[in-house]
Amino acid sequence: MTAIPFIVYDDDQQYRVDPRGSAFFANLQGPIGIIAIAGRYRTGKSTLLNQILLNLPAGRGFGIGASVNACTKGIWVYTDLIDYEGHRIVVMDTEGLGSLEADATHDCRIFALSLLLSSFFVYNSVGGIDESAIQTLSLVSNVSRQIHRRSEEEGGTLFPVFCWVLRDFTLRLETRAGASLSPNQYLEDALIGNDIRDCFP
Predict the structure, then answer these.
(1) 128: left (phi > 0), else alpha (psi -120 to 50), else beta?
(2) Is the dihedral of CA 43, 53, 37, 23 positive or negative?
């Protein structure tokens, strides 16, 4: 099996569904789930999918590289589905945010598409939760506000399960008094006073 493009765009920023991706989804039978990942470019999103989620050997799966240039363009899918407790899961990789080759409008479009297409959404970032990570996540909050507003008007919900992965995190989780701190409490404390918290169910 292999990774194939699903959403592509040209030099005029015109977005379209790639025929290979279209044929892949058209041939799927029955209900599926989609796991999508997003985050800043060159932070190991594709590697995370290849090694942890898909459990693939080196050289297989989504494209990765060691240069400063982004590897993934648009949105790609892996054609081998994951079977999990009777569910068939498609894994989706997305172009990284903040690339020097793209602007904020392009980032928002790719992010919104991956958010709308997924049933489980992974936000990937490096290091602890700092102001930079919060600012990047604000893109999620702006998109999710629109999704919530639209889904509530239609009497349903479109927002996927949300998971924030902190990469290369080596700090101890503890309060100022030295007490142990859970990952969930760490996240809650980091978002105190920030309206981003209200965007997630």
Answers:
(1) beta
(2) positive
Which residue bears the tokens 């899961």? 89
CB 142 within 8 A of CB 148: no
Cα 4 to Cα 91: distance, rounded to the nearest angstrom? 11
Please, which residues bridge with residue 76 across strands? 5, 93
Kindly report, residue by residue over 93-126, the tens digit of the pLDDT: 998 887 767 777 888 888 888 888 999 999 888 8
Asked if residues 123 and 137 have their Cβ atoms less than 8 Å apart, the reply is yes
pTM: 0.79
Q: Measured between alpha carbons, how far is 45 from 106 in angstroms, rounded to an integer?
A: 18
Question: pLDDT, tens digit, for every residue of 5-52?
Answer: 999 987 777 899 999 999 999 999 888 999 999 988 877 888 888 888
Longest C-alpha distance within the chain, in Å?
57
64: phi then psi, degrees, rounded to nearest 5: -135, 160
Q: Identity (one letter) of the amino acid at 29?
A: Q
The two structure tokens encoding residue 178: 């030295």
